[in-house]
């Protein structure tokens, strides 16, 4: 499936937004765009919902015909168990995470031990745990960790844009991780010269206008054939006003959904 994530509404659920969207609002906006998948990723308010609110959110998703996924940071067992419980109550079959969190930076050996403590529970619940590619951990190390743990419910959330900051070629990251991908974050990106031609800025771009070789990603990972969901995200910088930024965010959602739908056949 093709879907949206909370990063696709980053500015609209931020404190700067003139009308701040909550979790329920984002699901309704997604339904208006005929989207059947939504991922709450690095969205802290999801952890503060009461059990009743979580039940109402799950009910709303079912009513709107939207499949839910979750995203967080860190691999400590207690934290991943918390998200497994939340995933179970939301009927989410994917939890995306990263090795590091604001409070924990395990070595690969430590991360392996932590993951082994929770993966059987994820397997029993039918939930995949997808570790995201990003600049703080090389894609080679991430693949090595997944291969070492060798659990059917552990895989990779592929986001080729993130690894550029570590000087990894996006095509190399795609090829290296392809056999282990369980979830995809789709965002385009481009380099622009900074003022005075001193250095570059790496920021988001509408799909098909930047450096992401999306056709290569489709050819190599084969998400449609393998049933791998694709979640739209943005790196949209703040513009002159928040109103202008929100308008661009909505425009990018329209454009990126149309782009992915033109490239994918489900």
UniProtKB/TrEMBL annotation:
Keywords: Carbohydrate metabolism, Isomerase. The keyword Isomerase applies. It comes from the Bacteria. One of its GO terms (molecular function) is isomerase activity. Residues 78-237 form the Xylose isomerase-like TIM barrel domain. Coiled coil: none annotated. InterPro entries: IolE/XylAMocC-like, Xyl_isomerase-like_sf, Xyl_isomerase-like_TIM-brl. Pfam families: AP_endonuc_2. This is Sugar phosphate isomerase. It comes from Agreia bicolorata.
């Amino acid at each position: 499936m093709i879907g949206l994530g909370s990063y696709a509404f980053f500015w609209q659920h931020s404190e700067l937004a003139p009308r701040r969207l909550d979790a329920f609002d984002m699901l309704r906006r997604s339904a208006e765009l005929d989207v059947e998948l939504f991922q709450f990723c690095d969205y802290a308010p999801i952890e503060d919902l009461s059990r009743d609110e979580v039940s109402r959110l799950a009910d709303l998703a079912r009513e709107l015909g939207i499949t839910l996924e979750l995203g967080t940071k860190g691999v400590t067992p207690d934290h991943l168990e918390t998200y497994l419980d939340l995933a179970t109550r939301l009927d989410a079959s994917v939890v995306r995470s990263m090795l590091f969190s604001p409070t924990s930076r395990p070595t690969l050996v430590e991360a392996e031990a932590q993951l082994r403590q929770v993966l059987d529970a994820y397997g029993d619940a039918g939930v995949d745990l997808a570790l995201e590619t990003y600049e703080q951990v090389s894609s080679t190390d991430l693949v090595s960790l997944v291969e070492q743990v060798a659990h059917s419910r552990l895989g990779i959330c592929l986001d080729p844009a993130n690894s550029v900051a570590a000087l990894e070629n996006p095509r190399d990251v795609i090829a290296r991780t392809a056999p282990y991908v369980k979830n995809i974050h789709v965002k385009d990106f481009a380099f622009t010269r900074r003022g005075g031609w001193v250095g570059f800025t790496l920021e988001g771009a509408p799909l098909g206008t930047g450096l992401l070789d999306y056709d290569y990603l489709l050819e190599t990972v084969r998400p449609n054939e393998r049933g791998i969901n694709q979640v739209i995200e943005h790196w949209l910088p703040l513009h002159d006003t928040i109103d202008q930024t929100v308008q661009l965010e909505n425009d990018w959602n329209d454009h990126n959904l149309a782009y992915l739908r033109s490239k994918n056949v489900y």
